[in-house]
Recover the amino acids of this structure.
């Protein structure tokens, strides 16, 4: 142990540190260290190390044996389950393979007996129909395809579109290419919507040439096809499934929800990728992230795989149970051995614990220094006796140390900088008041406390700097040499203190850490001045305006980068040169001299750039004066006005174009301020007032027209400004230039600036006299035409009914005298009279729209639709149709009977024009789109050729034959007229024949 010297700068702290080190040495063999306020180095006691090694060897051997046993049992169980699952997959695969081969052999037997020639369709269809037994295996029938796959010869049962559908012909490509039987790709049936798989074989003649391809289509759910799956019984969490990798589908399985579901994409589930790549068993994660034991086996007659799955949690449950039991026993034994060993060591070292507690109390100052009792005559007793003798020697030197310490503290307190001495653990030993005040600790006892402890006592603004000191101290210790850094402290008022800190590490003779000397000087004022100078320089460099500095002789001293961008000169090119470089022989130089003599100058000037360009700038120049008033130079800024000048020129050009446009518009155009005073007008407006624009500007309407008309104009101006939107009105006026009278449509638009302040009213008036006259004439003509149509359709029905009645009498009287040909002629006449009557009835209804119907009232649109569906209920039942109603159905302002007729016609067409053999589906939707309510009727019927849609809404236009679909061809024309009568529109959409159609009616917002 080293001798205690005055230079160590410690008194009782040194003694306390010595007591702590001795207490550590004594208590290092004591196991219950948690009861002491210190902790001895781990494994420093020989007895403790031997005890722990013995316990560790016992525990390690026990746990290794347990883990090896569990691992061995898990491997055996894995091998057994894998073999069992592979056997199950092989059995199911072979059973399904035999079902597929049996079906292919049956197809080959039928194909060998197909009659020749194969293109005699009736004979071939009859042959297929007679093969009743085969349909037990192929429940979706048979189909014979041409060798080139262009179409099918025949199929049974006959399904619409199957002989021409590319989807039905596609699976036969393998047979056409290889000439061998093939199992096609599974898919969902187009009409049955059931999962199915095609199987195909070649049809060959006696010479072996391919005459065609015979295919049978069987349902995946067909009886006796995949029944091995239902026979398989798996554990609670297990499953079995059949997958088709080439199709990317799961065909079937114990979980029926997965039938025809897509397999995970390649690469997303590595376990599934490996199962369909080769046969065998694997352990991995499935698509749901669950670890499972999976086995696969390929069905040889196709590319299908049978996969058996079992979660590892269920597969290895017995092993996991055994593992838990073994580990629990091992843990219990380990705990018992550890507790027994700890109790024995505690009992053996109890006397040492008492000595350690007593010495630790003295080291922390709880008890005064005193001689320790010698409890044993052994190594511990010898150590205690040595400590007692050393303590007596140390106390004799304590008085001399106090005197030296007082002298040193006086010197430290006299130093204006912050001074600190820390021990090797970072505790404050010696410090002056300046150091305390630097961290706001002037009222805190810092002696013996670390930076972390002081941070809890310091003001909040000094906590982070104190915590950072520990990190910077450690860097100094690692470097081992003097360190000088700047540290920053932010005060609560956001002000910043900056210190120049010097740290010197001290080491013992053996290189161990001894202490740390810290001296800190406040350099806040100096750094603030440097920062302000840097900020000022950076602001000048970053300024977007050109800045120049010249001396009192008008020679350049400095320019910023913006000056270089503006005029092209660099600082080196202009430094020391005269301002005349920019304005040679320019009178503006005299203005610069005047600034030096008098005051600042601001104005627009032209300056010449380095490349010879003349740049317009806004020049601001002022003299630079010292505090005593002496002038030392000039400072100036130049703002580029090039863009502003271009914008001004462009605005002037646009103003000229706009005025030219207004002057040439044939309508009257004028502009007033909010008080009704004219600001501008065009020549057409001059004609109205009979005065030139110069006499109109600055005056009001009262200066040109009668007071009554002027009041009307003023009222309309105020209404437009109050509403904040354009207003439209019609008014009769008399031109002052020639006295003619005209009807004008006037639009008055309020004008405001960017802040919303009203600037006035823009007026535009258009002469609509001729248009109104034409509209009145057209209205009269339409009324006469409607009356004419109504008269024809109404008056012609009487003679037509007479003709039909006499034709029926002739048919009745001459029933026995007419041969077949004459009877046919008579029936033609009767049918013609009937169709003509229907057309006249339709024309009569068409002429009544808007004229004889009920007046518009507010009605519930959904109630009208329900009434139309009630009338069509027999047609819905006859067609076995599915009708769905969705969307928004608001109250609308419409004629009830006309709206009912429109909905009934659209729904009736959707039910009538249906595809035979297909269940009609009609979707009726309502939707509010913008300012319109739109009702649409969509069906899956016969569809419409797109280029024929334009003919649909014309009177007596039909796209289908009367022999197939009855009708007069006036229903959709009637719908169009009803929609237009309500201010709406109607249109139709279709993808083509057989693709269904969609009819939509849109009514304006005012109708609902």
């Amino acid at each position: 142990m080293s001798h205690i010297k005055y230079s160590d700068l410690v008194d009782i702290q040194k003694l306390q540190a010595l007591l702590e080190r001795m207490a550590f040495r004594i208590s290092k063999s004591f196991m219950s260290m948690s009861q002491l306020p210190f902790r001895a180095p781990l494994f420093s006691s020989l007895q403790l190390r031997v005890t722990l090694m013995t316990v560790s060897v016992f525990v390690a051997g026990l746990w290794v044996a347990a883990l090896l046993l569990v691992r061995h049992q898990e491997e055996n169980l894995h091998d057994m389950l894998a073999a069992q699952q592979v056997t199950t997959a092989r059995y199911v695969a072979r059973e399904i393979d035999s079902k597929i081969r049996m079906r292919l052999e049956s197809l080959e037997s039928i194909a060998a007996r197909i009659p020749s020639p194969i293109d005699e369709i009736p004979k071939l269809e009859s042959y297929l129909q007679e093969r009743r037994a085969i349909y037990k295996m192929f429940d979706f029938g048979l189909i014979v395809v041409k060798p080139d796959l262009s179409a099918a010869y025949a199929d049974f049962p006959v399904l619409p579109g199957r002989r021409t559908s590319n989807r039905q012909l596609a699976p036969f490509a393998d047979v056409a290419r290889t000439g061998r039987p093939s199992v096609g790709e599974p898919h969902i049936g187009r009409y049955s919507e059931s999962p199915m798989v095609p199987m195909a074989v070649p049809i060959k003649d006696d010479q072996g040439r391919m005459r065609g391809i015979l295919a049978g289509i069987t349902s995946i759910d067909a009886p006796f096809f995949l029944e091995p799956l239902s026979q398989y019984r798996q554990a609670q969490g297990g499953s079995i499934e059949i997958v088709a990798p080439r199709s990317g589908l799961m065909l079937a399985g114990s979980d029926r929800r997965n039938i025809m579901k897509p397999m995970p994409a390649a690469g997303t589930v590595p376990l599934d990728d490996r199962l369909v790549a080769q046969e065998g068993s694997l352990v991995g994660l499935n698509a749901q992230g669950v670890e499972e034991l999976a086995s696969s086996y390929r069905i040889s007659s196709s590319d299908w795989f049978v996969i058996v799955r079992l979660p590892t949690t269920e597969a290895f449950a017995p092993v996991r149970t055994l593992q838990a039991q073994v580990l629990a026993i091992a843990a219990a034994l380990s705990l018992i051995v550890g507790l027994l060993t700890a109790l024995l060591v505690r009992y053996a070292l109890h006397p040492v614990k008492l000595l350690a507690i007593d010495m630790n109390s003295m080291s922390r100052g709880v008890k005064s220094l005193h001689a320790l009792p010698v409890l044993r005559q052994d190594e511990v007793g010898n150590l205690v006796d040595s400590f007692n003798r050393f303590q007596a020697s140390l106390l004799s030197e304590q008085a001399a140390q106090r005197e030296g310490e007082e002298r040193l503290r006086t010197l430290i307190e006299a130093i204006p900088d912050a001074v600190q001495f820390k021990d090797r653990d970072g505790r404050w030993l010696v410090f002056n008041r300046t150091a305390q005040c630097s961290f706001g600790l002037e009222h805190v006892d810092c002696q013996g406390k670390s930076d972390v402890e002081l941070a809890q006592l310091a003001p909040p603004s000094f906590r982070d700097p104190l915590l950072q000191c520990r990190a910077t101290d450690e860097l100094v210790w690692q470097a081992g040499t003097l360190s000088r850094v700047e540290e920053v402290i932010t005060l609560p008022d956001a002000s910043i203190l900056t210190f120049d800190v010097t740290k010197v590490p001290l080491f013992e003779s053996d290189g161990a850490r001894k202490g740390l000397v810290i001296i800190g000087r406040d350099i806040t004022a100096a750094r603030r001045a440097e920062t302000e100078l840097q900020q000022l320089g950076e602001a000048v460099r970053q300024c977007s305006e050109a800045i120049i500095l010249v001396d009192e002789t008008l020679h350049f001293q400095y320019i910023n980068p913006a000056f270089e961008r503006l005029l092209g000169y660099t600082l080196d090119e202009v430094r020391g040169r005269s301002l005349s470089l920019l304005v040679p022989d320019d009178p503006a130089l005299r203005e610069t001299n005047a600034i030096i003599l008098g005051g600042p100058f601001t104005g627009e000037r032209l300056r010449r750039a380095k490349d010879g360009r003349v740049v317009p700038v806004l020049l601001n120049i002022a003299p630079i004066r010292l505090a005593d008033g002496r002038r030392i130079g000039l400072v100036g800024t130049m703002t580029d006005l090039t863009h502003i000048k271009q914008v001004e020129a462009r605005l002037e050009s646009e103003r000229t174009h706009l005025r030219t446009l207004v002057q040439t518009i044939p309508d009257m155009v004028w502009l007033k301020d909010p008080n009704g005073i004219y600001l501008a007008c065009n020549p057409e407006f001059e004609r109205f007032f009979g005065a030139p624009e110069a006499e109109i500007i600055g005056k009001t309407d009262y200066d040109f027209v009668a007071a009554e008309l002027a009041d009307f104009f003023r009222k309309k101006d105020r209404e437009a400004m109050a509403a904040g939107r354009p207003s439209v009105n019609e008014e009769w006026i008399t031109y002052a230039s020639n006295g003619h009278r005209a009807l004008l449509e006037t639009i008055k638009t309020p004008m405001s600036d960017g802040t919303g302040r009203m600037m006035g009213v823009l007026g535009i008036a258009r002469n609509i006299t001729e248009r109104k006259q034409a509209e009145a004439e057209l209205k009269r003509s339409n009324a006469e035409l409607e009356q004419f149509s109504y008269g024809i359709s109404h008056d012609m029905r009487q003679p037509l009914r007479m003709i039909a009645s006499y034709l029926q009498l002739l048919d009745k009287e001459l029933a026995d005298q007419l041969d077949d040909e004459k009877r046919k002629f008579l029936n033609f006449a009767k049918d013609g009279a009937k169709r003509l009557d229907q057309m006249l009835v339709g024309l009569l209804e068409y002429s009544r729209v808007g004229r004889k119907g009920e007046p518009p009232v507010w009605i519930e649109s959904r109630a009208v639709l329900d009434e139309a569906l009630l009338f069509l209920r027999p047609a819905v039942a006859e067609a076995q149709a599915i009708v769905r109603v969705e969307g928004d159905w608001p109250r609308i302002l419409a004629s009830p009977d006309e709206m009912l007729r429109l909905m009934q016609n659209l729904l009736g067409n959707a039910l009538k024009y249906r595809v035979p053999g297909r269940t009609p589906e009609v979707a009726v939707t309502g939707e509010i789109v913008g300012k319109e309510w739109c009702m649409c009727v969509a069906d899956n019927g016969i569809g419409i050729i797109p280029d024929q849609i334009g003919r649909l809404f014309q009177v007596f236009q039909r796209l289908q034959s009367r022999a197939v679909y009855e009708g007069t061809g006036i229903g959709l024309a009637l719908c169009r007229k009803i929609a237009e009568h309500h201010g709406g529109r109607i249109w139709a959409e279709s993808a083509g024949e057989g693709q269904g159609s969609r009819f939509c009616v849109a009514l304006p917002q005012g109708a609902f």
The chain is about 45% helix and 25% strand. The mean pLDDT is 75.
